[in-house]
Amino acid sequence: MPATFQLFDTTVSELTPDVFGVWETRPTSDADAGVGAVSFGVPGEESEEIAVWSVNLSSDLELAEQQMDASAAQVASARQGLVTARKRLDTLVTNQRAEGEVSFSVSAEQPDLPSADQELLRALGQIQAHEEEVSYGIFDGVKQAVSKMVGQAVTTMTGDVEAEEKLKAVMERMTASLIYYAAVETKMESAIIARTQISWVADANTIWQLGARPEQFALHQRTLKLAIDSRNALMRTFGLTAEAAVKLSVLLATPGGALVALPAAWKYVNQILTEVGQYRALTRAKEKLRNG
Amino acid sequence: MSDLNPDDLLFFNGINGANGDYEAQPLTLDALAKIAQGEKLDAQDLKELQEKRDAKTQGHYAVVEGADPKDLSTTGWGVIFAFADQDKTPAIKEALRPLLEHRKMQAAKVKAHYYKEYEGPAAYRPNESKNDFLTRHGAGPGPADPDKVPYYLLIVGDPEAIPYRVQFQLDVQYAVGRIYFDTLEEYAAYAQRVVQAETQAAFLPRRATFFNVSNPGDKATQLSAEKLIAPLSASMKGDQPDWQIDVLTPADSTKARLGSIFNGGAETPALLFTASHGMGFPNGDPRQLPHGGALLCQDWPGPQKHRGPIPESFYFSADDVSADANLLGMMAFFFACYGAGTPKLDEFAHKTGQRAQIAPHSFLARLPRRLLTQGALAVVGHVERAWGTSFIWGSKEQIAVFESSFKRLTEGHPIGSAFEYFNERYAELSSDLSSQLEEIQFGGAVDSAKLASMWTANNDARSYVVIGDPAVKMPVQASGAAPTARPTLATVSVTALPSTVTSTTITVQVASTSASTLPPPTSEGEVNYGIGESFSQAKESVQQLIRKLLDTLNQVVDDLTSLEVKTYVSRDMGGVKYDSKTRDFTNADLRAMTRIQLDGDTLNVVPERSGQIDEKLWAIHEAMVVQAQANRAEMLKTAVSLLGSLKGL
């Protein structure tokens, strides 16, 4: 059977793709409805759990190990992706600054720029233009302001509503994960073998199915590590985003530039993580082919 | 107490508005003593109460030595929001901004950390005990230490979000008040009017009024008139000769007269004291939320002459406060059942431990809240039923706590500090009650009279609360000063409220029937989505999230005291539940536990099997400990790295 790696999260309201490509993030209500079959907890009862990381593996131990290996590699790839993203960003900022007068145009001059970089520059260009527009608005009087209101009811920082909303959702999730306990459970063929309640500072209460074998115990330890590594990777991703926003803000002649660049930086970092993940998957597939 | 016998009756100050009966029939001492024996006191709370009692006998006050309760720069001031209200908190904070800035200026004058805002991760968390809250913020038992947690604490939230019991226990060592309103305009009104009252020359004449209800054939109010109001007003006259003390006769203590007192005119005093029944209603009665705790006046002809539901014409509720009443600077004390609020569950737990539900949810009485929005600075009142034991000990009046509190208040103490005497009484009674119950548990004889009186007096003293900022003082003029007019109430400005709030009504808890002086809530359609504003709103909301995340990270890192790993086993994983309150599995066997303190001290509980160490399980447990240590190290590294990155923003 194929393994499932699911994260039931009270802070999400719909199925959310995970940037690391490991965890299928679902609203907790899915678990109540039986989609994920969370093993513990009374439906409707208030709980301090914000998230349940649930892994369902094959009962074939060797296959289960392989399934865990594959997911661990994906999280490791995300960490590698962060290194790549940092390098790419530094190069981009250095090149932009080297041009003297900062230009966010990517039309003709830099056709060979990677798509994530191109998109980022476009977003920065929009922010710059937006800020100018807003500044002029102050002097243009009521008439122009009204026409803008009618023409564009809701304007976000970058104009990219999706990136901004995702960023905010991630920030909420991270904050909640620092406050509440999470649960991590390992199942084999849907039969639970162990579950750990873990706080952000690593206090852990673990319950084992009586008679569980040492190999199963080792698998649960790996599940626990995978969940924690994933959470840490999310935090590091956000940390890199914050650093990226600060670096990008030097290119923007706007007050509070780092803040307004945050959604664009978030999108940029995630695009690179996806690129790196895809590249790694491709490499692994090639190796598999080569090895027959 | 020896002059009481077990068949004597004790009286509550509450009338059931739905049927006109007493809210609870008077109980015999014997019956109460039995209820008292079912009482379980929390060990930690009891320890603190005993410390408070001991501190009192050694002449200590609630705040650390050297702090002057009249000077916020030495005592500190803080505001506590509920984590459960986190979505509303930014808007409420904005509405309270003038008050928060005013208090910050006073409390943080010398030491910045003497002003605290407990919000976000620092907020009161659901189901947290008072001790958990204080421990999380670095404070232990003993006098309030403003270096850790300020002495004056304003709770912002309803008693569902921050329970009454937390307020009661916090009040033992701290000066605590609470506000909760239905709309942002009301928060803004209170904040702006407190600042208005405190930032101009004192303007109120030294005048106190005693509203003195004594309903015919009603033992409870006859007692309060005779043994509370009469001696208290006399004592105040003697103690404060430069105060005008007006004691209304029972015949004058009517609803109409109370209307005149509350209309902001010539009859409105600086300090109002009322003793009457408070209105109670059955759980779910339509009048319970709007009129619970309303003051039953002399208009009620008493239990013999009136049968059936109590009409509104007999009692004074929030609906009766005039829309243009100017109560700026006034303070009030309501001795009445439910005068400050009603808990969801009956506080009078019976021997079985069952507590009946008496309201759909815990709520703050509407009358004091209404007075606060009209300029009153604070109201002291009772949560749940009030008892005669508040002022009678044995068969004699015992009003020293009232006298001392009013003396302090009239001499310029903030209200939270002035009413410390009630907390000291609670501490003393709780400690004595606990000793008495322990005696009985180990075979001591039950003295019904003594036990019942101690228990009711204990509940009484515990349940007095301040509604309003505990740091407000009465703005009374110096003795002999020429009378000045009460300043006009400042128009409430709500322009500073964040436009992200689409409706200014936060929750509709009370079905109000009163006309409000405040502007109607802005409709959703009126929210301005102008370009510039939405842009800055977006920036602001991201900034708020970052601030919240930063605070949480800092808090989590600060909270690290130990690492705990537990290992359980179960035959039937399907039957296992996790109790998030105790943080333990139920229906499972705890087999091993390790706790490692920050200083390296380690406690191990090792599993046994047939008298031998269960090596296999212990190995698994040890592996989990090693993994937990590695996890913590990695998590901390991540936190520190993230903190560094966020600080750049």
Detail the topology: elements first, then pairings.
The complex is a heterodimer of chains A (292) and B (649).
Chain A: E1 4-9, E2 24-27, H1 28-32, E3 49-57, H2 61-98, H3 115-151, H4 161-179, E4 181-188, E5 191-198, E6 204-209, H5 214-249, H6 257-290
Helix pairs in contact in A: 2-5, 2-6, 3-6, 4-6, 5-6
Chain B: E1 9-10, E2 14-16, E3 27-28, H1 29-37, H2 43-57, H3 72-75, E4 77-81, H4 89-107, E5 115-118, H5 130-136, E6 152-156, H6 164-173, E7 175-179, H7 184-198, E8 207-212, H8 219-239, E9 244-247, H9 255-261, E10 271-275, E11 277-280, H10 288-291, E12 295-296, E13 315-316, E14 331-335, E15 341-342, E16 363-364, H11 366-373, E17 378-382, E18 392-393, E19 396-397, H12 400-410, H13 415-418, H14 420-441, H15 448-462, E20 464-468, H16 531-558, E21 562-570, E22 577-579, E23 584-586, E24 589-597, E25 602-605, E26 608-609, E27 612-613, H17 615-647
Parallel strand pairs in B: 2-11, 4-5, 4-6, 6-7, 7-20, 8-9, 8-10, 10-14, 14-17
Antiparallel strand pairs in B: 1-3, 11-12, 12-13, 15-16, 17-20, 18-19, 21-24, 22-23, 24-25, 26-27
Helix pairs in contact in B: 1-15, 2-14, 4-7, 8-12, 12-14, 14-15, 16-17
